[in-house]
Amino acid sequence: MIEFIKGYVEHITPEYIVIDHHGLGYQIHTPNPFIYKKSNQDEITIYTYQHVREDVLALYGFQTREEKALFMKLLNVTGIGPKGALAILASGNPSHVIEAIEKEDDAFLVKFPGVGKKTARQIILDLKGKLGDIAALYAPDLFTHEEIEKERTNNHALNEAVEALKVLGYGEREINKVLPSLKQESLSTDMYVKKALQKLLK
């Protein structure tokens, strides 16, 4: 996994930018490519997510780790793919998206391309109350400090548990089947692993 790339913007298109990193050009899909200025003088850091499918290998890039984290959260929602998640982030106002999810404002969410009533409700169902870590930057008034700290702890423990399951040989498809129920609980890493194994072995 490529966490970030530092380099110079060599080319900009409506769909992606090309970053020159020591003579190697990385094609990176971004929510709004035109926010980047083509310049050989200013080195930028872009936080990346590598999307792998049978027929696709693509890099997605973001200005901050929090924006990248929101993109990854959206990808976990049934019915939202990379293109749909980018369209949501292209508004440039993650705080509005987070606020809409927390306040169950599906009327706001259906304004994005590819998001119908059903998908908007799914976004709210899957993500409401689980964005405290990201909201700490974009919408701090929506969560108390205690809620943000709890979310940060839970995310870290769950992420560690997922990595442990991968080491044990479980694939992403199997892990994704049990993730929704695990996200409903606040557990330590070892308890997440035990709970996941119980569900996987049923």
From TrEMBL:
Question: Which stretches make up the Helix-hairpin-helix DNA-binding motif class domain?
Answer: 72-91, 107-126
Q: Does the keyword Hydrolase apply?
A: yes
Return one GO MF term.
DNA helicase activity
Q: Which domain of life is it from?
A: Bacteria
Compartment(s) where it occurs, according to its Swiss-Prot or TrEMBL record: Cytoplasm
Ranges for the region named Domain III are 153-202
Which InterPro entries has this protein been placed in? DNA_helicase_Holl-junc_RuvA_I, Hlx-hairpin-Hlx_DNA-bd_motif, NA-bd_OB-fold, RuvA, RuvA_2-like, RuvA_C, RuvA_C_sf
Keywords assigned: ATP-binding, Cytoplasm, DNA damage, DNA recombination, DNA repair, DNA-binding, Helicase, Hydrolase, Nucleotide-binding
Describe the subunit structure.
Homotetramer. Forms an RuvA(8)-RuvB(12)-Holliday junction (HJ) complex. HJ DNA is sandwiched between 2 RuvA tetramers; dsDNA enters through RuvA and exits via RuvB. An RuvB hexamer assembles on each DNA strand where it exits the tetramer. Each RuvB hexamer is contacted by two RuvA subunits (via domain III) on 2 adjacent RuvB subunits; this complex drives branch migration. In the full resolvosome a probable DNA-RuvA(4)-RuvB(12)-RuvC(2) complex forms which resolves the HJ.
HAMAP family annotated for this entry? DNA_HJ_migration_RuvA (MF_00031)
Report the sequence similarity comment from the record.
Belongs to the RuvA family.
How does the record comment on the protein's domains? Answer: Has three domains with a flexible linker between the domains II and III and assumes an 'L' shape. Domain III is highly mobile and contacts RuvB.
The task this protein performs is described as: The RuvA-RuvB-RuvC complex processes Holliday junction (HJ) DNA during genetic recombination and DNA repair, while the RuvA-RuvB complex plays an important role in the rescue of blocked DNA replication forks via replication fork reversal (RFR). RuvA specifically binds to HJ cruciform DNA, conferring on it an open structure. The RuvB hexamer acts as an ATP-dependent pump, pulling dsDNA into and through the RuvAB complex. HJ branch migration allows RuvC to scan DNA until it finds its consensus sequence, where it cleaves and resolves the cruciform DNA.
Q: Kindly provide the name given to this protein in its UniProt entry.
A: Holliday junction branch migration complex subunit RuvA
Q: Which organism is it from?
A: Metabacillus niabensis
Species lineage: Bacteria, Bacillati, Bacillota, Bacilli, Bacillales
